[in-house]
Design goal:
By secondary structure, the chain is an all-alpha fold. It is 85% helix and 0% strand. The chain is rod-shaped.
Length: 208
């Protein structure tokens, strides 16, 4: 649009402003000026001043346009940089989200592994405690068994000694009984002989 404004010779400075800034209000018509006086040398005093003022205003507008255009370009470049940054940050965010997902997956795997390890360790501690308790009970049972074996050995020794003493006593009594029996048998034989002699003496006395 500005290109056509510059190519049209009938376009005023306000038309240029309207091309650049369409929201500008339409200016009021300037008051009528007296006609310029033509001097004998053929010069026109009013036309050069108005043309110069229009050129200065156009140059000022062009400078403002260039400044605004430069600001627009800078803003556009900033927007593009922000878009690039946004795209980069979005990619970083996607990478971070993927990394977070991987970390969460690893965390879940490590949590399950930790739970399984803790469960196994708890079972090992439990089994160790049970085995230790069984070992202590076995040691106590072995100690009681050894005590009972020792007690039984002592009892057996005492019984052997008592049996031996009883056996000796019985043998002594048996020996005394055998001696007494032999003595009694000898006495009975002697008494039988004496009885036979008395009977014979009696028989002899009776025959007389």
């Amino acid at each position: 649009m500005l290109f056509f404004c510059k190519r049209d010779p009938t376009v005023t400075s306000h038309h240029v402003l309207l091309c650049l800034f369409p929201s500008l209000p339409t200016p009021r018509a300037p008051p009528s000026r007296p006609s310029t006086t033509v001097h004998p040398n053929g010069g026109d005093e009013a036309m050069p001043s108005e043309a110069g003022a229009g050129d200065e205003e156009l140059e000022s507008l062009l400078r403002n346009f260039h400044r605004v255009s430069q600001g627009y370009k800078d803003a556009l470049m900033e927007v593009q940089a922000l878009r690039v940054n946004y795209s980069t940050e979005s990619k970083k965010r996607e990478v971070l989200e993927s990394r977070i997902t991987d970390l969460q997956r690893d965390n879940e795997r490590l949590r399950r592994l930790y739970t399984e390890t803790l469960f196994k360790f708890t079972n090992q501690v439990k089994f160790h405690a049970e085995s230790q308790s069984l070992k202590e009970e076995l040691e106590k049972a072995n100690s009681r068994l050894l005590s009972m074996e020792e007690y039984h050995k002592k009892e057996i020794e005492q019984l052997k000694h008592s049996n031996e003493m009883n056996s000796n006593a019985l043998e002594s009594e048996l020996s005394r009984a055998l001696v007494q029996q032999a003595t009694d048998e000898a006495a009975m034989k002697q008494l039988k002989l004496e009885l036979s002699a008395h009977r014979a003496h009696i028989d002899m006395l009776s025959s007389r």
